[in-house]
Amino acid sequence: MSKIVTDVVCPFCGTLCDDLEVSLSDDGKEILEVYNACAIGAAKFLHAQASDRITRPRRRQEDGTWKDISYDEAVDYTAKMFAESKKPLMYGWSSTNCEAQGVGSELGEVVGAVMDNTATVCHGSTLIAVQDVGVPGCTLGEIKNRADRVVFWGCNPAHAHPRHMSRYSIFPRGFFTGKGAKSRKMVVVDPRCTDTAKTADIHLQLEQGRDYELLSAIRVAFRGEKLPDVVAGIPKEKIYEVADTLKEGRFSVIFFGMGVTHSLGKNHNIDIAIAVTRDLNDYTKAAIMPMRGHYNVTGSGQVWGWQFGFPFCVDLTRGFARYNPGETSANDLLMRDEVDSFFSLGSDPGAHFPNESVKKIANLPSVCIDPHITPTTAVCKVHVPVAFVGIEVGGCAYRMDNVPIETRKVVDPPEGMLTDEEFLKKVLDRVREIKEA
Ligand code: SF4
Predict the structure, then answer these.
(1) From the CA of 387, how far away is ligand 1's center (Å)?
(2) What is the mean pLDDT of residues 334-360?
(3) Which of 49, 234, 345, 433 is the most buried (most CB within 10 A)?
(4) Ligand 1 atom at minimal distance to the Cα of residue 15
(5) Whole-structure pTM value
């Protein structure tokens, strides 16, 4: 008889689905099946116990080969690297729990690091816009039960957040919306004809990089003012139609992704998307929400927000928190050769950073904490495998709507393997010993 663990939270994307069921072998050690998850969520659980998994830390040798080392040796290398650095960069923090993020913050403060998370290459511009103009927000539960107008702007949940539409935004029966997709009108704004766009009631296939103009035009259309015949490649009739559709709804929500945050205009695109939402509240209830990617990137911003006052790009090198994206952001620091060591946890900058930044990482003393072999481990000097959060250890994570959810442990990690939090605590203790010596 296999054992079933219920109410498991998926530690993959910011949707943080909390209804998974995982079947285990008789002895409770092996994951056999994952129910209710999408393909990418299920794959994370099923690959966690791959036979070629690295279970002990390893250090790169002069000739480029790896040599296994103990956790104590890895702790010692990491602590000495921090102690000898004038300006270490501690990056990542999005695929781990808030408990580890908290210990990491303390460590960053003690060693005087610059701390940045993956928002720096995704929704950092959103965070800047929210600081500038505020945000009319809500929870995914409210959207499920109330939203009858749903806009996906520059995002493709059919691929990136596969259960978002079925759990919260389009298909579920809402308390006030009734059942199924017909109870909601769906608008997609995307230069590409994505799988999400194919299911929309209205697809605005705007010209690449002209989001700001189209958002401005929607504000004009709300007020019934005159528009040019075509804006951003969209005929004015279509823009008036979308404006009227949103105004006629009882509850409208705009979800947006990196198609807006990292195209021409960046945080100003979000400023004006928020202005559209604010304007819409003159006619009906409206809210806006970023489609956060990593399952706990939101938590990283929350933890740093309450500890330092800033959600990313936090510079602690002067003994207090400074924040100036563009100056204190990971890529800018690497490209300007301003950091002298690199630490990565809970992300894969080797895969996501520009090539020039990755080359800089390869030339620095560096440690990568990751259960997997990744493009980042391929350029780091020490690789420390750890337990999977949400599979082998629980802890708190924040969903994309800023709701904290307690993830569940499903199986034990390989014997002797540390968690992110345990490893960071050991490094923190060792750094204090070195500093006091
Ligand atoms: S939508 Fe996201 S959180 Fe939900 S099962 Fe898929 S990957 Fe996991």
Answers:
(1) 20
(2) 97
(3) 345
(4) 3
(5) 0.96
Give the residue, out of 40, 47, 170, with the most ligand 1 atoms within 8 A of its beta carbon, to mutate for a pocket test.
40
Backbone angles phi, psi at 141, to 5 degrees: -65, -40
Q: Give the integer Cα–Cα distance in Å for 81 and 342.
A: 9
What secondary structure letter does DSSP report for 417? P
Range 235-245 burial, b when 16+ CB lie within 10 A, else e:
ebebbbebbeb
Superfamily of domain 125-290 in CATH is Dimethylsulfoxide Reductase, domain 2 (3.40.228.10)
Q: What is the CA radius of gyration of the chain?
A: 23
Protein residues whose CB sits closer than 6 Å to any atom of ligand 1? 10, 12-13, 15-17, 37-38, 40-41, 161-164
Dist. CA 119 → ligand 1 center (Å): 19
What 3-state class would DSSP assign to 395?
Answer: strand
Average pLDDT on 50-69 reads 95
Domain ranges (residues) in the chain: 3-47, 58-122+295-436, 125-290
pLDDT, tens only, 352-374: 999 999 999 999 999 999 999 99
Question: Residue 180's pLDDT band (boundaries 50, 70, 90)?
Answer: low
Q: How many helices (DSSP H) and strands (DSSP E) are in the chain?
A: 17, 21
- Please answer whether residues 232 and 217 qualify as being in contact, where contact means their C-beta atoms are separated by less than 8 angstroms: yes
Query: What is the per-residue DSSP string for 208-273?
Result: TT-HHHHHHHHHHHHTT----SEETTEEHHHHHHHHHHHHHSSEEEEEE-HHHHTSTTTHHHHHHH
Token digits for 298?
Answer: 């939101």
* pLDDT of the residue at 2: 75
What is the CA 100 to chain-centroid distance, rounded? 16
Tell me which of 3.40.50.2020, 3.40.1260.10, 1.20.120.530, 3.40.50.740 is the CATH number of domain 58-122+295-436: 3.40.50.740
Angle of helix 420-436 relative to helix 71-84, nearest 10 degrees, comes to 50
